[in-house]
């Protein structure tokens, strides 16, 4: 369970980072 939650957080943060880059450019 903990692994799944941590994995989900990583995916969400990754998506946010991609979104920020997309907005910047």
Automatic annotation (TrEMBL):
It comes from the Bacteria. Pfam families: HTH_Tnp_IS630. Residues 1-25 form the Transposase Synechocystis PCC domain. This is IS630 transposase-related protein.
């Amino acid at each position: 369970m903990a692994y799944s939650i941590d994995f989900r957080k990583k995916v969400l943060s990754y998506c946010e980072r991609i979104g920020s880059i997309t907005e910047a450019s």
